């Protein structure tokens, strides 16, 4: 099968491309920087820089859409919030227009979303049927998902993985969390009682491949490990890996000084249910936080001790 992928040079995309190639898929990546993409992805991946140049004769069996500016890398100024939104929605709409032009339609489109879709839901166990809230991350994800919905009108199976915080050694949030924990500076944010949805990167890649191959998987689907813990518990367990304690606390009022509602990244929680993914037949390799920390070569102390 031939797969068209966006976001191929990102933290998740580069690993997913490697997995696709390893399983014998042909891969074309939509990229913005040819030289960077070529260096990251290698010579076996075809590169395109403008989706509008792809016409009716384009034939791909699947589209995987991971495009989007990093959410947490910069302060949420009005201009950066616009960039975060537009980089997702505009690319997704362009992909839907491409599908409309194709004489032969792809069988599936996997278009990413995020845990932030749910907003701040306290202790609620969140299945995919829950509605979004009226905050920026929630609205961004809802608009992102809505932009992808047009492909269903062409008979294309649409999967919307709502991706939680991805734990991997090679990028994303985890190195930023592990470094302060290692030196005893891991911090509890606000009350620390907000749920901290997470998934091991290897499980996310496997789950995306599962969704690609299984024709019964469709619609929104939570991609989060079943071991949902509060931010305080996550931080304490991570600190204990290094023989440290998490004694620092960042008051909520301090985080609320961040611009543009950015405090929701740190103070809002989502207790995501993995039921739909597991019921579909997916088996997590790293279902618990202890499993994940162990695989990340961080298992130094007894994590079960209280």
UniProtKB/TrEMBL annotation:
NCBIfam families: yfcH (TIGR01777). It comes from the Bacteria. Residues 3-218 form the NAD-dependent epimerase/dehydratase domain. This is Epimerase family protein YfcH. Belongs to the NAD(P)-dependent epimerase/dehydratase family. SDR39U1 subfamily. It holds the Pfam family DUF1731. Residues 250-296 form the DUF1731 domain.
């Amino acid at each position: 099968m031939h797969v068209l992928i966006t976001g191929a040079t990102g933290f998740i995309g580069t690993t997913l491309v490697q997995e696709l190639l390893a399983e014998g898929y042909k891969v074309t990546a939509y990229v913005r920087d040819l030289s960077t993409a070529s260096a990251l992805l290698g010579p076996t991946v075809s590169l395109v820089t403008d989706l509008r140049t792809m016409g009716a004769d384009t034939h791909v069996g699947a589209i995987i859409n991971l495009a989007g500016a990093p959410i947490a890398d910069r302060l949420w100024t009005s201009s950066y919030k616009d960039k975060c939104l537009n980089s997702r929605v505009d690319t997704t709409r362009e992909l839907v227009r491409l599908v409309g032009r194709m004489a032969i339609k792809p069988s599936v489109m996997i278009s990413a979303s995020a845990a932030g879709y749910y907003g701040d839901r306290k202790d609620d166990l969140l299945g995919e049927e829950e509605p979004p809230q009226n905050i920026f991350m929630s609205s961004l994800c809802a608009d992102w998902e809505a932009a992808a919905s047009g492909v269903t009108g062409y008979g294309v199976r649409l999967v919307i993985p709502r991706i939680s915080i991805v734990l991997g050694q090679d990028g994303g949030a985890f190195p930023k969390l592990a470094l302060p924990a290692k030196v005893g500076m891991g911090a509890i944010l606000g009350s620390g009682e907000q749920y901290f949805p997470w998934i091991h990167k290897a499980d996310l890649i496997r789950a995306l491949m599962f969704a690609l191959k299984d024709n019964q998987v469709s619609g929104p689907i939570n991609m989060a490990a079943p071991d949902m813990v509060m931010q305080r518990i996550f931080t304490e367990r991570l600190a204990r890996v290094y023989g440290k304690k998490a004694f620092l606390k960042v008051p909520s009022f301090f985080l609320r000084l961040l611009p543009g509602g950015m405090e929701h990244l740190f103070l809002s929680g989502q207790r995501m249910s993995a039921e739909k993914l597991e019921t579909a037949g997916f088996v997590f390799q790293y279902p618990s936080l202890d499993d994940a920390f162990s695989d990340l070569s961080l298992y130094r102390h007894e994590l079960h001790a209280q």
